[in-house]
Design a protein that fits this description.
alpha/beta; Rossmann fold; five-stranded parallel sheet; two-stranded antiparallel sheet; 7 strands; 37% helix; P-loop_NTPase
Length: 182
Amino acid sequence: MIEEIINAVSSLLERKGMAVAAIDGKSGCGKTTLAKKLEDILSADIIHMDDFFIPIKERKAENFTVAGNFLDKKRFLSEVVSQINLPSFEYSVFDCRSQCIKEKKLIKSRIRIVEGVYALNPEFRHAYNLKYILKSDVGKRLERIEKRTSPQIFEQYISLYIPLEDMYFSAFDFSDCLVIEN
């Protein structure tokens, strides 16, 4: 799995001088873990979709009924998608724990990897050279989520986030993406 991605990135770097990849998949599939490994091996810049969540106090009722509506799509498009091929840029990072926005500057790499649920939303897909969907057995996913969250947050995944993710993956065509079993 990881070798395929490394080879694809290397090939793109040779041909285009830059590689921009997206790793999408349902919660608990291992997207962040894979991105971290690629960051370490390739010295890639990682952009997390979680950095673009809408703060809880700003969410509206429709955020809970439409897949992908927890994301500030406008901000992601203007701060990342529009600049992703520049040598360096800054974007605002949302911290889920503090519910605050911070700044982060990407400066080190010609390799950019966007990881997280909703990364391959059709509104963003044109920005990526490489597109991956990570899939995992539901039991394995739930086990991973339960390990990293409190019982209260785990229940939110079961009752809210996972159904919205299922809706997202049913609503859009991902046939142009490489599927990786994890």
